[in-house]
Structure formats: structure tokens, C-alpha cells
Amino acid sequence: TKEGNWEHGKNILHINTTALALSKKYNTSIETIYKVLKTSKAKLLAARELRVKPGLDDKILTSWNALMLKGYADAYRVFGEKRFKDAAVSNAKFLLRKAKNKDHRLTRNYKDGTSVINGFLDDYAYLANGFIALYQATFDEKWLFEAKELQEYAITHFYDDKTGLFYYTSDLDPPLIARKKDISDNVMPSSNSVMAKNLEILGSFFFDEFYLEKAKKAMMTVSDEVLNSEQPYYFTNWLSHYMMLAKPPFEVAIVGTNYDRMRLQLENYFLPDALLLGGSKEGSLLLLEDKLIDGETIIYVCKDKMCKEPVSTVKEALQLMK
User: Fold this and answer.
1) How far apart (Å, rounded) are the C-alpha atoms in residues 313 and 196?
2) Spatial distance between the Cα atoms of 212 and 195, rounded to a whole number of angstroms
């Protein structure tokens, strides 16, 4: 229009009808209409290329990639699509190569082959959590041990013995006026609530009372604030951990040649109170010790390290979890 449909008398061109309507209006073929549109778009693109392009934020953040890693691992567990598992494994391997140092220290960012910022607590919390999710999706113990190494490093360099919580910055960073602790769950869960759940889950997998006590201490430190809050949505991940303490999860071990097929069958059911472990062999976890029976794939439903009679079908396992 002469007056324009945008600011300062400018026009932003857009198609507000169909090619068929235009062909009838101008008494021409639809092919001609598409040809004119294609030419017009090429002219618009050429003009747009002369404009200053918006800035591009192309840095790679460890914590955000760790959240995506867990998302892909969870998606594979729910949908069983191999492309989700492949993306999760590829991302996990990238983070190990580019974000993790030999002493298990993480870096915060990566861009153009370099990483210069020391990792914060959410980098360790989210990545350990992502590795735990990837273990439950693949039963590859490598990821569980990677999570444990990150957790150990965080305890050494971030942990506050007095409160049982973790500082947001490492003791290797330059000293600040005050070292803050991230507690509230907002758009992303707080690094402390994720750390507490990591300790709870790793303590269950590794029979580690040291981890379990630390998980409980963290919950006790914030419990009054969490349970008495008029805004509980700021503590959703803490409340999830609280549920784990109030009702400890089942430890479901699947051992045998067809472990992956049976694991995928089990994933068809929503089991928020179950930790999955297993593999074609017993591996190194104590909960899997003496669980393998040659030529069979067996499911063990356990709680607090006490296992019920082994079963051979998912239906039977679900009955044991009722």
C-alpha cells in the first residue's frame, strides 16, 4: 500500500491469498504465479543480504548441553528411537572430550576449539545427572562412573560441610565477597537440588552410605523452607527428592542376553519410582552380583537392596512393584 503496513511508510511484503486465486485474478497459469513469487523472493533475499545481520551466540555451554543430553536419553527411554540414543551418546562423548579435564574438572564453555571459564556447580550437577540418565538408557556402566567422578570432584571443591549444600563456585576460583548457594528451582532446577538427587541415586547404585547421608543432609537443610513455602513451584525438584526419601525407589535389575529388549518393554510404563540397571553381564555393581543365569534374561525387583523373587516377564515385574 502507499501508506505502508509497517513503520515509516515501509511495506513488509507477504502473501495473503492463494496461487489459484491469483491465477484467476490475473488470468494466467498457476505455474506463472509460482515463477513470479520465486523471482520476487530472490529479489527480497538479495536486498536482505545488504542489511547488518544480528549477532550470533554460538558458544557451547556445558550445563545447557547436559540438560539436552538428559532430554535425549529420556526421549530414547520413552520412545525407543535409536536416533535419540545416538544423539545422547554423541553429545556425552563430545562433553567428555571438550569440557572435562584429566583431573575431572569441568570447563563452562567451548568455542572455536578453546574453553577458558572454570565450571560452575550447575555444570557438574546437570552433567552428572545426564550421565545417570544415559546409563539407565543404555546400561553402559561407563556413564555411571563418569557421573560418580564428577560428583566426587564437586564434593571436594564445592561442598560446604556445615550446611550440607554446595557453593555455586569452586574453591579454585578467585575469592568473591560471598560464595552463593543456588537453592531455588526456577526455569531450570537448582544445582543443589540436582546434586542432592544425584547423591541419592548414585548412593543407591553404588551402595554408598556416604552419598546417601549427604543427600539426606541437603534435604534436611532446606526442608523447612521447602515445606513451608507459599510458592512450592520454586522447589519442585527438591520436592521430587523429598518423595524419593519418603518412598525409596525400586531398584529394577534386568540381566541377560535380551536385557535391552526387556528394558524397552518396561519403559512403556511410567515408573517414576524405579531406578533401572543391568546388562548382558553382571558388571561391577553390587546389586547385580550373582544375578546372571545362563541362557535366561531375568528381572529382579529390589528395594533398599532387598530383592524379591526373580521373574522372567515385564508383567510379573510390574506386579511386584504394585
Assistant:
1) 33
2) 12
pLDDT single digits (tens) 129-169? 999 999 999 999 999 999 999 999 999 999 999 999 999 99
CB 188 within 8 A of CB 61: no
Rounded to two decimals, the pTM is 0.85
List phi, psi (to 5°) of 244.
Answer: -65, -35
Within 100-206, strands assigned E span: 109-110, 159-160, 165-166
Residue-level length of the chain = 322
- Left, alpha or beta for 77 (phi > 0: left; psi -120 to 50: alpha)? alpha
- Other C-beta atoms within 10 Å of 250: how many? 20
Cβ-contact 189, 237 below 8 angstroms: yes
Contact between residue 65 and residue 97 where contact means Cβ atoms under 8 Å apart:
no
CA 120 to chain centre: 17
> Pairing state of beta strands 250-255 and 274-279?
parallel
Structural element, H or E, at residue 301: strand 298-303
- pLDDT tens-digit readout, 234-290: 999 999 999 999 999 999 999 999 999 999 999 999 999 999 999 999 999 999 999
What distances in angstroms separate CA 217 from CA 159, 164, 186, 245, 262, one per listed residue? 12, 6, 22, 11, 36
